[in-house]
Amino acid sequence: MFEHIVNEANVPLSRITTMSVGGPCRYYVVPKSVEDIRFVTAICERFGWKLLIIGNGSNVLVGDEGFDGVVMHVGKGLKEYGLQDGELYAEAGVALPRLAYSMANEGIAGFDFMAGIPGSVGGGLVMNAGCIGKEIGDVVSSVTHISDTGEVITSSAEELQFSFRRSWFLERRHIIVSARFRAEAASDPAQVMEATKRAADIRKGKFPINVKTVGSTFKSPPEGPHPGRLIEEVGLKGFVIGGAQISTVHANWIINQGSATASDVKRLIELMQTTVAKQLGIQMEPEVLFV
């Protein structure tokens, strides 16, 4: 069906998600261009197949039954980036920490916070990802995306309604292809690299590393209350269901200990949410996206 695009059938999604859980999909495809994406979306529309876009596989929880449709792994195929006409151009699959360090090496300021975000450009834009008080929506100037009818659109940052862990894309079936970011030469390039390393170190110091996880389970508003503290306050830090554990390093993270299923993870999320609501009267909003 997708002969000219890298593809496989019945691929376990545990292979491409950072939590390493999730059943198989009908087709798995890796697009290399805008035309590839338009072709796949047209095929899905023609046959009535569901379509799931994956960036680097973080912040998403796929069920054990899998996904009865096409998974398009943009994070593996669209990885070009570079400075163009005074702006940073980056395709949707580029890892945000890679951008941070690349810009620091170029002596470009303003991207240091991305070193602390374990995600891709596309996923970061959808969720308006952030770290150390700065969000991706603060530095983006425009985003090119493909509508559900195949139209290629470029929208300004103002049109995309960025707010805390939200964007215009969350409510729509548009596919992000690339983005442009404001870039300014730093007065002291060494300071930019130092700030970039500091952002990465802050993340490493606060959160578990080298583990299988989606990242933050619940949204953590800058003004609080912070979910990790709430979950710890109700006594759930370290709690285990099946092969999934609430991290002992940071209680807003769930860790796959090696044998976790998506069901284990979902049950933990529900336990965290209901226990905090019952004991503290606070409703925590999930940051992870359920498929």
TrEMBL record:
SUPFAM superfamilies: FAD-binding/transporter-associated domain-like, Uridine diphospho-N-Acetylenolpyruvylglucosamine reductase, MurB, C-terminal domain. One of its GO terms (cellular component) is cytosol. Keywords: Cell cycle, Cell division, Cell shape, Cell wall biogenesis/degradation, Cytoplasm, FAD, Flavoprotein, NADP, Oxidoreductase, Peptidoglycan synthesis. It is found in: Cytoplasm. Pathway: Cell wall biogenesis; peptidoglycan biosynthesis. GO terms for biological process: cell division; cell wall organization; peptidoglycan biosynthetic process; regulation of cell shape. Residues 20-186 form the FAD-binding PCMH-type domain. GO terms for molecular function: FAD binding; UDP-N-acetylmuramate dehydrogenase activity. The active site is at 165, 216 (proton donor), 287. Its main location: cytoplasm. The keyword Magnesium does not apply. It catalyses: UDP-N-acetyl-alpha-D-muramate + NADP(+) = UDP-N-acetyl-3-O-(1-carboxyvinyl)-alpha-D-glucosamine + NADPH + H(+). The keyword Cell cycle applies. Its EC number is 1.3.1.98. Its cofactor is FAD. Cell wall formation. Belongs to the MurB family. NCBIfam families: murB, PRK13905.1. This is UDP-N-acetylenolpyruvoylglucosamine reductase. It comes from Paenibacillus algorifonticola.
